[in-house]
Amino acid sequence: MRFRRLLLGVLAAAAALVPAVPAQPAQAAPPPVRALTFNICGNVCRHGETVATSANIAYRIYHLRASVTMLQEVCYSQFLAVQARLAPFGYRATFAPATTGGQCDNHDTKHGRAFGVAIVARGAFDSRVVYRLPTPYGSAPEGRVVLGATVRLPGRTVFVVTTHTTASGPNLATQLNVLRRWLTPIAATSPVIFGGDLNSLPEDNALDGFYNAFTEANRSRVAPLPTFIPIPRKIDYLFGSPGFLTPVGVARAYTGYSDHCMYLGVFR
């Protein structure tokens, strides 16, 4: 018994000398993702003009502190100018040509008057994909593509996707259906932001699948923030994958040179 008491005493003394395991600090939440989408109307509205257009877009991206920006109707020359202005601030950019813009600069032998969509991110690109959207119901006057990029942002990696669907008709529903079937399973297991000009109203049946599988930054499908200027209505969207990206606010800005507003959504 005496030996047991001595042993317990030694063990207690030894335990007192062992430093306590420090509590692990709670992991800080990553910074919010500030997602911006903007149809710049770079061919029709801006007639392909580059210097002033790119300067204003770059200025707004920087001062809105956009983590990722999705641009539609952008001439290749306008894209290059935006990219050059933002590169010194840690932004990277990628472009996908969809068609030819008649008033875009004839930039080089490879791109010519290329006109399409772009993603700008304040982070690194791990990979990117470009797919041409189908037009099974007759030839379309303007080609359409979808551009996706895996972007490493502070604290998280997000698959960012943008497109500009056809304006109307049966090809529009087909394109939206293809996009939904592609993105829905990805969004179920990882962070996805899908944004752009979808040429559709929130109440359109073709958007049901997106509203079911994603959370739109504006949240309200009944009284949304209009993004198109000539006829005030919402046709620009920012969808985030639920469980990974929660919308906490939206804003819009008129630029004076496009028929669309800049549309900003913040996700945490």
UniProtKB/TrEMBL annotation:
List the InterPro entries hit by this protein, alphabetically.
Endo/exonu/phosph_ase_sf, Endo/exonuclease/phosphatase, GPI-anchor_lipid_remodeler, TAT_signal
Domain spans labelled Endonuclease/exonuclease/phosphatase: 36-260
Which GO MF term does the entry hold, naming one?
A: catalytic activity
Q: List, in alphabetical order, the GO biological process terms annotated in this UniProt record.
A: GPI anchor biosynthetic process
- Domain of life of the native organism: Bacteria
PROSITE patterns with a match to the protein in the record: TAT
Q: Which UniProt keywords apply?
A: Signal
In its keyword annotation, does this UniProt entry include Signal?
A: yes
Q: Which residues form the signal peptide?
A: 1-28
**GO CC annotations, alphabetized:** membrane
In Swiss-Prot or TrEMBL terms, this protein is called Endonuclease/exonuclease/phosphatase domain-containing protein
Provenance organism: Paractinoplanes toevensis
